[in-house]
Amino acid sequence: MRSLVWFRRDLRVTDNSALAHAAERSTDGVVGLFILTPGQWRLHDDADAKVHFWLQNLQSLSQSLAALNIPLRVVSCDKFDQVPKLVCQSVSQFGCGDVYFNAEYEVNERSRDAQVTDALQSQSIQVHASDDRVIVRPGKIKTKEDRPYQVFTPYRRVWDTLACDDMTPLAIPPKQPKVDLKASKIPTELAGFDFSAARPDLWPAGEAEVDKRLAKFKAKIGSYGTDRDIPSISGTSQLSPYLAAGVVSPRQCLAVAIGRRNGSFTIPSATGPATWVSELTWRDFYTDVMVNAPRVSMHQPFKRSTNKIRWRDDPDDFAAWCEGRTGYPIVDAGMRQLNQTGWMHNRLRMVTAMFLTKHLLIDWRWGEKYFMQKLIDGDLAANNGGWQWSASTGTDSVPYFRIFNPFSQSKRFDPDGKYITRFCPELGNVPAKALHDSKKLADSVGDPTMNYPQCIVDHKFARQRALDEFKRIGDAH
Ligand code: FAD
């Protein structure tokens, strides 16, 4: 029987469960399918940078599949509602008897997959879905009362006992029998998306790039525990765009960090690798939260009581934040990094998100949407988790009274101002100390030729305003 592998955000040939199973079981060749759904992607706020990255990786995937005699066919429809018809048509056109894919866990994606499965099964086509996107499948980890965990640490304890169960990454499948079909040409443009600012120099596509990044990171994982918070250096793996597009699997990442004892894999205890594994666990945790509490992906806070917060409706302040002109150097540098590169360092994601939701008291949903529209690694579960953490509306989020002081943050994590001045070059002549001190900074930027704004809001005033509002809504905090 000939099999169809429907690729989505799993654009790789290594350790790809759906592809490996199809290749193992098929007797008459394998065909790959990818469906472009630009209208749906726009509805989901998928960033230009991310969609460009997908297309570039599709090109690379198509080449890797061709080497295995698997042609990659690319078809297009506007939104998910037309996908079931398109998959059925492809299956019949390519003469396939079964379909393999890796599960996606977002609400619209799950509903699309359920409809595709029904449509295929009604035509006696077998459907095989694998859990491949996270290390421990969502819903698997439960409390003794059979409830999902709402707090990370106990979730992590159980996760540790399961994560290495099925650890050996799957190999690239062997060459398949030839199929008499040509691979599609991968588009380089897509209506409704603007790729003019894409940065393939920063984010080269393909699994060969993943191998380089994994090897480079493995060599420095020992210092991850401390380096991960310094935005001026490359102390983290910078694998998030590749994980989000599935160019690398989370198991391949875990394999970099874990050890082996008596023939079994063990979760590391050394600071660097252990901290990195924690981050991979947060990725699983937020996916689990999204699946168990789907409201979080539908613009609702995890903590329902926080719906009572009176967020400020201030488009001007929001625009200043988006454009990186709040007058807080560390915040502005973070936002400019996002706007210029499609990626932002994790420390800065926390600082900028907290600044928007606490200092400006602007709705976390505005920021969540803006991030999604810009991030090359935009991932609904992780982005929502990060935003609700910062806004104190989420599960296991930062307590509302722990509000970062942006000046203390930059003093601690960017003491010499290297990161700040990389993205705010107009501050290049300001002494480092003044970058972390509101009064000294106000004197320095008083010079209009510098063209850098005064602070948009006073830290003390803003902090108190946020505290008062959170106190007002009372309960749950
Ligand atoms: P590393 O430090 O090397 O971590 C390895 C991997 O672990 C990352 O690639 C990522 O897949 C995962 N990871 C790390 N931290 C987290 C975390 N806190 N939550 C979930 N997964 C994590 N991450 C995304 O992948 N997509 C997003 O859309 C996203 N939006 C965020 C929004 C906010 C407000 C915040 C505070 C965080 C967000 N994160 C998001 C998490 C984190 O900032 C990025 O994963 C990280 O900066 C990516 O860089 P890296 O690959 O070098 O990470």
UniProtKB/TrEMBL annotation:
<feature type="domain" description="Photolyase/cryptochrome alpha/beta">
    <location>
        <begin position="1"/>
        <end position="135"/>
    </location>
</feature>
<feature type="binding site">
    <location>
        <begin position="279"/>
        <end position="286"/>
    </location>
    <ligand>
        <name>FAD</name>
    </ligand>
</feature>
<keyword id="KW-0157">Chromophore</keyword>
<dbReference type="Pfam" id="PF00875">
    <property type="entry name" value="DNA_photolyase"/>
</dbReference>
<feature type="site" description="Electron transfer via tryptophanyl radical">
    <location>
        <position position="387"/>
    </location>
</feature>
<dbReference type="Pfam" id="PF03441">
    <property type="entry name" value="FAD_binding_7"/>
</dbReference>
<dbReference type="InterPro" id="IPR014729">
    <property type="entry name" value="Rossmann-like_a/b/a_fold"/>
</dbReference>
<dbReference type="InterPro" id="IPR036134">
    <property type="entry name" value="Crypto/Photolyase_FAD-like_sf"/>
</dbReference>
<feature type="site" description="Electron transfer via tryptophanyl radical">
    <location>
        <position position="311"/>
    </location>
</feature>
<dbReference type="InterPro" id="IPR006050">
    <property type="entry name" value="DNA_photolyase_N"/>
</dbReference>
<keyword id="KW-0456">Lyase</keyword>
<protein>
    <recommendedName>
        <fullName>Deoxyribodipyrimidine photo-lyase</fullName>
        <ecNumber>4.1.99.3</ecNumber>
    </recommendedName>
</protein>
<feature type="binding site">
    <location>
        <position position="276"/>
    </location>
    <ligand>
        <name>FAD</name>
    </ligand>
</feature>
<feature type="binding site">
    <location>
        <position position="224"/>
    </location>
    <ligand>
        <name>FAD</name>
    </ligand>
</feature>
<comment type="similarity">
    <text>Belongs to the DNA photolyase family.</text>
</comment>
<feature type="binding site">
    <location>
        <begin position="377"/>
        <end position="379"/>
    </location>
    <ligand>
        <name>FAD</name>
    </ligand>
</feature>
<dbReference type="GO" id="GO:0071949">
    <property type="term" value="F:FAD binding"/>
</dbReference>
<keyword id="KW-0285">Flavoprotein</keyword>
<dbReference type="InterPro" id="IPR002081">
    <property type="entry name" value="Cryptochrome/DNA_photolyase_1"/>
</dbReference>
<dbReference type="InterPro" id="IPR018394">
    <property type="entry name" value="DNA_photolyase_1_CS_C"/>
</dbReference>
<dbReference type="GO" id="GO:0003904">
    <property type="term" value="F:deoxyribodipyrimidine photo-lyase activity"/>
</dbReference>
<feature type="binding site">
    <location>
        <begin position="236"/>
        <end position="240"/>
    </location>
    <ligand>
        <name>FAD</name>
    </ligand>
</feature>
<dbReference type="GO" id="GO:0009416">
    <property type="term" value="P:response to light stimulus"/>
</dbReference>
<dbReference type="GO" id="GO:0003677">
    <property type="term" value="F:DNA binding"/>
</dbReference>
<dbReference type="InterPro" id="IPR005101">
    <property type="entry name" value="Cryptochr/Photolyase_FAD-bd"/>
</dbReference>
<dbReference type="GO" id="GO:0000719">
    <property type="term" value="P:photoreactive repair"/>
</dbReference>
<keyword id="KW-0274">FAD</keyword>
<dbReference type="InterPro" id="IPR036155">
    <property type="entry name" value="Crypto/Photolyase_N_sf"/>
</dbReference>
<feature type="site" description="Electron transfer via tryptophanyl radical">
    <location>
        <position position="364"/>
    </location>
</feature>
